[in-house]
Each structure stands twice: as C-alpha cells, then as structure tokens.
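Worked example

This section walks through a single chain of length 237. The input is the sequence exactly as stored; nothing has been trimmed or padded.
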Amino acid sequence: MTADHHGGSDERAGDAERDHAPRPAIDVVLPVLNEAGALPALLAAMPAGFHPLVVDNGSTDGSAEVAARLGARVIHEPRRGFGAACYTGLAAATADVVCFMDADGSFDPADLAAVAGPVMNDEADLVLGRRVATAGAWPFHARVANRYLARRIRRTTGVNVRDLGPMRAAPRHALLGLDLRDRRSGWPLEMVLRAAAAGWRVAEVPVTYTSRVGRSKVTGTVRGTVTAVRDMAALLR
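Given that input, the structure is written out below as tokens.
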C-alpha cells in the first residue's frame, strides 16, 4: 500500500514538473502592409512565448518603424503579395512551430495558444483558426467566397475544412518541405491542399474575429475578394 502510494506521488510530481516546464517559443509571422494603427495593440497583446515576426510588404505609413520600436523583429519583403510576405516570414523563422496571423487587429493574439496547442502536442500537423465573427466584422461577399472555397476543398481532398482563415499553425520544417509556390492570395489555400496531399492531420479551432483597424486591402472589398478567389480557384483546377 505504501509503495503504491509513493509511486502515485512520484507520478503526480512528474506531471506537475511537466505542467510547469517552460514551453518552447513560437514564431508568429505577421504580414504587414500599412498597419501602423493596428500594430501597437496587437504587439502588446502577444502572449508570452509567442515571438512576433513582422514582414513589411512595402508599407508607406511607418509600420516597420512602429513594429521595430515596439520590440518586434522586422523583415522587409519588397515583392507585393500575401504569399510573398508569409513565405519570407516562414523562411526567416527559427522556432520549431510557426503561427501566421493577420496584423490588422481583426484577430486576438490570445487565441494563438489554442491554435498552436494541437501542433505542439502532436495532435495535428496543421491547425486553422475557424473564424467566429462579431457583427459586421466579416463582409457578406467574403463569407460567401470563403464558404465556396471550403466546400471545394472538402470535395477535392476530403479534409473537413470550414474556413480558410489566415490564423494558423504548423511545424516549420515540415511546412518548408511542402514547397509552397503561390506568392499571392492563393497561399492559404495552397497550404491546405499540399498538406492534405501529404497526408497531414488538419484540424480547426474557433477563434474570435472582429472588425479590422483601418481600411481593408483584400476581402473587405468586392474587388479584393474577387482577386483572392481567382488566385485560389486556379489552384483547384
């Protein structure tokens, strides 16, 4: 009886040590194009252990300077394109796990832990943040386009994806190994398609989605949404 009890205590002590052990750092790639107004609050809300990696994609409003002043690592990618900025951030990252998130204030950095957790715990290889939008945050035309693309993914790959949201997490080395080529708006879709083809475990977790700070450059406009859908649809042919 005493031996059994002693063994149980040791097991609980080991669990406690693991629970309090520091978790590895995670790089958070933030593609940025004129987000000076959103960056201060975003960077201030970054959870401990998540290191912001700002990829400036040709901003003219001082975004890079704001990010650097607030302590973020800043990289410049002159080639315009969401995929170009994301790939440059991925190539520059050093952490074993990398997250991606829009830098416009529409996502809550507090949700990063829930997105990265399944990857860190080896429960998934790619985790997508499924957006739970507040009123007015997600324009109707953008929701319809997202629904259409998600349905095409399910039919094409069998992966049960409901949202192609830009908040996501994956192992850095494995993601580099997917050899993503799109440097425009098709980057998020290509990642899911190549991950599915490679047999990755793809999961979704809910994340909060609110109105962005400033003017939208892509899905907030009909023209931007059409461009994004065109880029992505080409990958599904």
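What to look for: The mean pLDDT is 87.
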